[in-house]
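Hi team,

As requested, here is the filled-out complex form for the pyridoxal-5'-phosphate run. I kept the field names the same as last time so the parser does not choke. Let me know if anything looks off before we queue the next batch.

— J.
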Amino acid sequence: MKSDTSKQLFDRGMKVLVEGCSSASRGPMNYAPYPAYIREGKGARLWDVDDNEYIDWQLSFGCLPLGHAHPAIVDIVQEKVMGGTHFATALEVEVEAAELIVEMLPHVDKVRFANTGTEACMTGVRMARGITGKRKVLKFEGHYHGWYDGLLVSTNPQAVTTLGHPNDPVRIPDSSGLTPGSLEDTLVCVWNDADALERMLKTHGHEIACVVMEGAMSNMGVIPPKPGYLKQVQEMCRAYDVLFYLDETVTGFRVAPGGAAELYDLQPDIVTFGKALGQGFPVAAIAGPDHIMESIEYGKVLHYGSHNAPRLGLYAAKTMLEEMRRDNNAGWTKINAIGEEMTTRLNQVARDTGQNMRVQNVGSMFHPVFTDLDEITGYRDFCGHVNLAKYGEFSKLMREQGVFFTGNKILHNLSCTAHTQADIDRTIEAAGNALEQMSRVG
Ligand SMILES: Cc1ncc(COP(=O)(O)O)c(C=O)c1O
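And here is what came back:
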């Protein structure tokens, strides 16, 4: 596979950009020695600047349920861009997109648009504090909610010996530059364990504003909740007078039309969306019932932003939702079926080649991990039993065969409506080749 042009761009990029690009996740840390610079995307395909073609399963970290350059998105954006890109005023499309979301989500009365998941989560936490007058936030080990200081605790895999007792997990800051307040006000609990949460709420419930979580872990591979667990969390939050905040940045408009809340039959107090919602444009949202959302009225709890409700992004979001909802939500039926097939067949290939690769999924989100366990049920399993270097090697071998699996070892891969049966078959064949090569090398 040629990569001369990417190499040249990387050399130039290193002089003017940190790591040659704009996020550690996209640079040499995950794509050593240098990343492929992508020129173009269409459907489920990517092309890099050296003309290599890839089947894309990373899909902009889940931002593209319809794949790249979907004709309906291209049409609406081309039409609307002629009328201006951004006014920072109230917009008709803002009302229309919010109406659609409220219609789709029974737990939501009102929506506030933002730009990124991080911003939305920062706002969600501030709202919870403003509404309850309580200062602490309870999050879970291995759950990522963006890079806002207050939630940037215990989000990365660590040596199990550093995690502390499961009744009182050590809070591990994930960046330099955090203030002690970020740690003091952020409690960390073991996930997928109702007793652990009950213990924390019994002790600290009176000072906790909200329990925030992903409905399915998507930043430690893919880890589904145990049956009934999320309902128990919701009930406990109600019992201890703590707001239940479901961060649907990844799962929203992806795992089901109504996200994890629909899939697991939940009525969260606060929800946040991002990624899939914008279909490739930076659109995020904070949403919930009236009595919660009224907290940001007139800046009682402040949420501002010059770029909120980006005009073209909202046309893309509205069009994406309309496309996915067509024929009784056929878009979600399709991407979930592809996710299931990828999971089953990748697991079969792993068995056939004798590799200890296991694939877990929630609908269209799936991820291979190399592990001695039959199942990864939480962060501590992931930290203690997953060989990240092997996934790095596997994903590199896949990309060398023209199949773009994310190089980020703790994230996940995803399907979109543009993936075809031939894409799946070719990917499975590439996975077989990659695993056989890994077996030969040992
Ligand atoms: C669950 C979750 N919440 C929030 C975020 C932050 O979103 P963004 O990258 O748009 O800031 C992410 C990003 O990966 C996420 O996975």
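Two things worth flagging: The two ends are 23 Å apart (CA to CA). Residues 61, 116-118, 121, 144-146, 214, 218-219, 247, 249-250, 274 surround pyridoxal-5'-phosphate (CB under 6 Å).

Thanks,
J.
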